[in-house]
Amino acid sequence: MSGTAGQVIRCKAAVAWEAGKPLVIEEVEVAPPQVMEVRLKILFTSLCHTDVYFWEAKGQTPLFPRIFGHEAGGIVESVGEGVTDLQSGDHVLPVFTGECKECRHCKSEESNMCDLLRINTDRGVMLSDNKSRFSINGKPIYHFVGTSTFSEYTVVHVGCVAKINPAAPLDKVCVLSCGISTGLGATLNVAKPWKGSSVAIFGLGAVGLAAAEGARIAGASRIIGIDLNPKRFNDAKKFGVTEFVNPKDHDKPVQEVIAEMTDGGVDRSVECTGNVNAMISAFECVHDGWGVAVLVGVPNKDDSFKTHPVNLLNERTLKGTFFGNYKPRSDLPSVVEKYMNKELELEKFITHEVPFAEINKAFEYMLSGDGLRCIIRMDA
Ligand SMILES: NC(=O)c1ccc[n+]([C@@H]2O[C@H](COP(=O)([O-])OP(=O)(O)OC[C@H]3O[C@@H](n4cnc5c(N)ncnc54)[C@H](O)[C@@H]3O)[C@@H](O)[C@H]2O)c1
Ligand SMILES: [Zn+2]
Ligand SMILES: [Zn+2]
């Protein structure tokens, strides 16, 4: 047990006081972990677009003050009552969706939508007592998706923590805690393209490029990348994308452009933008008879998906996924091993690095569409 176990820890955290306003590094108090919780020392965290959506809170339920962050790597500082499979010193990746290992979903081979710990973006407190573990002068600060990794220490439910190989460099594998595993799994576990097939990827951020990487690993022969940002096309070549389409270059819907390029449609598509029109295009660009579209992007609260039912009658399939259908505790350690065995390269996703004090720069990079993932070093 560490010397701080059972005590309140005072440390630095980046607090979002208001929607869309720069985060402020504050000294916060982090309470000890309660029943089935663990307290983590975060060493590296990175920024995913989902943090930015809920920080902007334009199409989402606002909840402030809040500590964002869900893509990270760290070390267990102490564990709460009832935690038996983690101990102080373990290397871990926290995950925004959990695995209790007991519910129907956790027992099903097909689902990772745990009844107890599935993603809940509106909840800002811990499950066991509906309270926050973070405070400033006694005033609670809300959690985000059960992880809140923009803090030197955070408290997470044990079911949302994957124990990984301690030899894995946390400054690289932290990106597997959300975006890269999500994109990779969306293709390999859900879209399941076959050797020689054609795959369209909508949105060439880190999640979409990880989906492209999955298509390359599966042996797809055509990987068509679609993005509104022409800067993305250069990055995409390193991820096996073979052709590019910028919807802005065409005066007809992008699904028609893709259908023409592919003799009726692609075999598989994966949507990684969060834009509802791109979701509809991703569905309508798959071939009839066998085409499968997989939605990954997080939509706005009031979005609705509209397509003609005949698109489904024509034997197309529409699916969606959280975290690429990986079960966080059971499956993530083996995704880390893919990196360790050099089957999966992570360095090419990491385009920036900033010290914790400059965390707002990571938001600027994401908003300007510059680069893919920015690693935030907590000790710097
Ligand atoms: N389902 C999940 O489990 C899960 C997990 C992680 C992230 N996400 C979501 O995945 C999406 C991608 O995340 P990211 O971190 O890679 O974001 P990102 O901002 O780095 O990438 C998104 C890309 O989509 C492009 N884009 C936006 N609208 C478009 C449109 N209409 N047509 C074509 N391209 C368009 C942008 O130019 C950008 O390059 C986000 O919506 C994020 O919230 C979902
Ligand atoms: Zn994410
Ligand atoms: Zn469960």
TrEMBL record:
Recorded catalytic reaction(s): these are:
a primary alcohol + NAD(+) = an aldehyde + NADH + H(+); a secondary alcohol + NAD(+) = a ketone + NADH + H(+)
Residue span, Alcohol dehydrogenase-like N-terminal domain: 37-164
Name listed for the protein in its UniProt record: Alcohol dehydrogenase 1
Q: Which residues cross the membrane?
A: none
**Record lineage:** Eukaryota, Viridiplantae, Streptophyta, Embryophyta, Tracheophyta
- Which PANTHER family does this entry report, sorted A to Z? ALCOHOL DEHYDROGENASE (PTHR43880), ALCOHOL DEHYDROGENASE 1 (PTHR43880:SF9)
Biological process GO annotation list? formaldehyde catabolic process
- List the source organism: Vitis vinifera (Grape)
Q: What is the protein's quaternary organization? A: Homodimer.
Q: Does the keyword NAD apply?
A: yes
- What are the Alcohol dehydrogenase-like C-terminal domain coordinates in residue numbering? 206-337
Q: Tell me, what is one Gene Ontology molecular-function annotation carried by this entry?
A: S-(hydroxymethyl)glutathione dehydrogenase [NAD(P)+] activity
What PROSITE patterns would the database entry show? ADH_ZINC
Task: Tell me the SUPFAM superfamilies matching this sequence.
Answer: GroES-like, NAD(P)-binding Rossmann-fold domains
User: One Pfam family name from the record?
Assistant: ADH_N
